[in-house]
């Protein structure tokens, strides 16, 4: 009877491990064993933790999602184009202009300094931030900068101003 229970547990354990954050791993190296327990068998079994992250699975925002975020004021939109580009082409309503070359410094400013320099409220590290540019290249770089500074909920609009302008003309 005890043997039967042991076999049941042996059948359940691999399924539990499959659905947990611990993965069994086979290692074929003598260095994996402590020196006092080395034997002629060089295969050992160890466990590695899965890498879980609280960051969103995707950092891309679609046109429709951006419209909803702006309408509900649920995100701070930062346009990382140069000021002359905004004057020449236009800008997304409600976006704060922080040129890409200044993003790293701007996100470390005092909130009053940020508001004075860029004309909008400085996002907090827990705020939802969406970066935008002309075509999605610079916004991705800005997203990486913000992430490295500890901002948690950062996304970018890969379509940029080009997609925004195209969609706004259709509506």
Offer a quick outline of the entry:
By secondary structure, this protein is an alpha/beta fold.
Keywords:
four-stranded parallel sheet; 171 residues; globular; 7 helices; alpha/beta
Helix percent reads 25-40%
> N-to-C terminal Cα separation, in Å?
72 Å
Relative strand content:
15-25%
Order of neighbouring strands in the sheet with most strands: 4-3-5-6
Q: What general form does the structure show?
A: globular
Mean of residue pLDDT values: 78
Structural class: alpha/beta
Count, helices:
7
Main sheet properties: 4 strands, parallel
Write the element-wise H/E pattern from the N-terminal end onward. Answer: HEEHEHEHHEHEH
Q: What is the gyration radius calculated from CA atoms? A: 25 Å
Question: Runs with pLDDT <50, length 5+?
Answer: 15-53
Fold and architecture overview:
The chain has 171 residues and is of the alpha/beta class. It is 40% helix and 16% strand. The strands form 2 sheets. Strands 4-3-5-6 form a 4-stranded parallel beta sheet. It has a two-stranded antiparallel ribbon with strand order 1-2. Helix 6 (137-148) links the parallel strand 5 (128-132) and strand 6 (153-156). The longest helix has 17 residues, at 2-18. The chain is globular and about 80 Å long.
Layout of secondary structure:
Elements: H1 2-18, E1 22-27, E2 44-49, H2 63-71, E3 76-79, H3 83-89, E4 96-97, H4 103-106, H5 111-118, E5 128-132, H6 137-148, E6 153-156, H7 160-170
Parallel strand pairs: 3-4, 3-5, 5-6
Antiparallel strand pairs: 1-2
């Amino acid at each position: 009877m005890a043997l039967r229970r042991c076999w049941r547990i042996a059948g359940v354990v691999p399924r539990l491990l499959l659905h947990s954050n611990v993965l069994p791993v086979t290692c074929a190296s003598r260095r994996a064993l402590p020196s006092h327990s080395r034997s002629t068998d060089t295969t050992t079994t160890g466990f590695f933790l899965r890498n879980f992250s609280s960051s969103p699975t995707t950092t891309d925002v679609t046109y429709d999602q951006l419209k909803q975020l702006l309408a509900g004021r649920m995100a701070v939109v930062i346009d990382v184009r140069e000021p002359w580009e905004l004057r020449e082409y236009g800008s997304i309503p409600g976006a704060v202009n922080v040129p890409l070359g200044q993003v790293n410094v701007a996100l470390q400013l005092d909130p009053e300094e940020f508001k004075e320099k860029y004309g909008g409220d400085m996002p907090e590290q827990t705020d939802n931030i969406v970066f935008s540019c002309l075509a999605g290249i610079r916004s991705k770089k800005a997203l990486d900068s913000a992430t490295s500074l500890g901002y948690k909920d950062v996304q970018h609009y890969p379509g940029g101003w080009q997609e925004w302008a195209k969609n706004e003309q259709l509506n």
